[in-house]
Amino acid sequence: MSETSTLSHQESILVDASATFLYDLLSDITRTGEWSPVCKSCWWDDEAEAGRVGAWFTGRNELPQRTWQTRSEVVTAERGREFAWVVGGSFVRWGFSFAAAETGTRLTESWEFLPDGIAMFEEKFGDEANAQIADRTQQALDGIPKTLAAIKRIVEVSADAEDQAQS
Q1: Could you say which DSSP state residue 101 is in?
Q2: Quick one: which H or E segment has residue 55?
Q3: Phi-psi map region of 80: left, alpha, beta (phi>0 left; psi -120 to 50 alpha)
Q4: pLDDT tens-digit profile of 65-90?
């Protein structure tokens, strides 16, 4: 795998829901723990800024070998089009984009390890930086399809339940 392809990744899934519905769900970062295999909870640092470009939030992440928190800044908030944030303000960019499909929406999750993040890892981990970067890259490669599948399941199961309740 080339260096570029290992430091960015995206995958898509079709979800039977509108782009605005998905945007509203996914931009509510307080719900992230419902679908993320690593990020177990998030909260806005300033509730008055929630969901806006420039707003910061904190996330609590858990793996079997460690638990940690990160702060992230919202960098894109275009309802029905894209919601994205950058961990640490310049380290790793995560995002969701939404595109109309024949049935529902093509939901794409993207991840990119940015140059400042690589530099920070080199400074923090020294000789272990490449191994640490490879580990984080693998977590993203493993986590994105799990996240997308969980979002699809949550959205479509709740829609089915709502349809059955109305019948």
Answers
A1: -
A2: none
A3: left
A4: 999 999 999 999 999 999 999 999 99
Nearest to 107 by CA among 86, 143, 82: 82
pLDDT tens across 134-153, in order?
A: 999 999 999 999 999 999 99
Lookup: tokens for 101: 């499909």
Any idea which residue has 């806006």 for tokens?
Answer: 52
**Cβ neighbours of residue 152 under 8 Å, at least 6 residues apart?**
13, 14, 15, 107
- What is the token pair recorded at 130? 């490449």
CA distance 52 to 45: 12
Q: What backbone torsions phi and psi does residue 65 show, to the nearest 5 degrees?
A: -95, -10
In sequence order, which residues have a C-beta less than 8 Å from that of residue 162 and are 6 or more positions away? none
Q: pLDDT for 111-136, tens place per residue?
A: 999 999 999 999 999 999 999 999 99
Res. 158 pLDDT band, cuts 50 70 90: confident
pTM beyond 0.85, yes or no: yes
Distance of alpha carbon 6 from alpha carbon 18, whole angstroms: 31
| Residue in this structure with the two tokens 């199961």, named with its chain if needed | 157
Residue-wise DSSP of 28-69: -GGGGGGT-SSEEEEEESSGGGTTSTT-EEEEEEEETTEEEE
